[in-house]
Amino acid sequence: MSQETFRKLRQMLMEKLDVCQELTDQEILETIDELILDSLRESGVSLKEKVQLRQELFYSVRKLDVLQELIEDETVTEIMVNGPDSIFVERKGRLTKWPKSFTDQEKLEDVIQQIVGKCNRIVNESSPIVDARLETGARVNVVIYPVALNGPILTIRRFPDKPITMEKLIELGSVTPECAEFLEKLVKARYSIVIGGGTGSGKTTFLGALSEYIPRDERIITIEDNAELKIQGIANLVRLEARAATVNGAPAVSIRDLIRSALRMRPDRIIVGEVRGGEAMDMLQALNTGHEGSLGTAHANSSRDMLARLEIMTLMAELDLPLQAVRRQIASGVDILIHLGRMRDRSRKLLEISEVCGYEDGEIKIQPLYQWQEEKGLVKMEPLMHREKLERAGVKL
């Protein structure tokens, strides 16, 4: 069925519906059924096509239009809308163009306003960039004119309904059983770990899988920009989410605010979904004041680059600390660096586990414990130097 026919039917449907009245889903579906019956009685359209049309018309007025089908598809991990007729979908790391499209740019804009409105946010020319979250937990980024020169851009990152476990990552080849067992012992012994990697390298997924190893009797506080982590099995779990300033005048609540608040909640460990700025200083202070075993992620191109990123982000806190003091904080607070990457075949893999060995001659010393090699995969490099935490926890390598 052509887009023109669908557009006409949708216009007829909107004329039939009383937009001022709160209609149930069933009432809308009944109106759609009447419309299809009256309009396509002698059209030669098959029953299968009518059923599909019924669903698409319903989605166009009640849900997220052509995107609803993708939102409900568990195989979809990312949806990229570059315009009303330019939609790309990621499945298993591979991008394909979606054959369906919005009827026009106005409908795409309606869907965007519907999404941000439910989050009590606003997007307009004065505020053209918005991050939001769907009821399903999917993360949404919206960019509109004048920043987006060719019209509104919508990106939706969808997360699995069930968290991906370390066993699943082993099955996918993202990590070896040996490395998984090694990391399990480090987590249980309360080594503080920061996970790095580029965009789409699987940092949040790996963080969630690593969190499985936290003992079930601990009090855990998670802190995120957009709540994505789904930690299972911990009864004493507190989830905190940052908030931008709202259209009603409510002030923003930053990651820094949440870390400071979390420290007053008597956590055993703090898990920070992603460190992007001055909150790195607050996280380091937490690691250095009795909250060992905490976990976090940050964007970085390598383990060595992660150290430089942590330095820069800590200095962004504007506490006027000398660089050497910052480096000492990092060296004493962070025990292990994990680096993830996306391979040429678009698979995601653990590329390196490094140990932060200390601070010496003005530099932070690190050594690789495991490294990815093209021919051999993950190879064990050096033995763990600092084993005091393992010994205190009664954990043997």
TrEMBL record:
Gene3D superfamilies: 3.30.450.380, P-loop containing nucleotide triphosphate hydrolases (3.40.50.300). Residues 65-342 form the Bacterial type II secretion system protein E domain. GO terms for molecular function: ATP hydrolysis activity. It holds the Pfam family T2SSE. Belongs to the GSP E family. This is CpaF family protein. It comes from Blautia segnis.
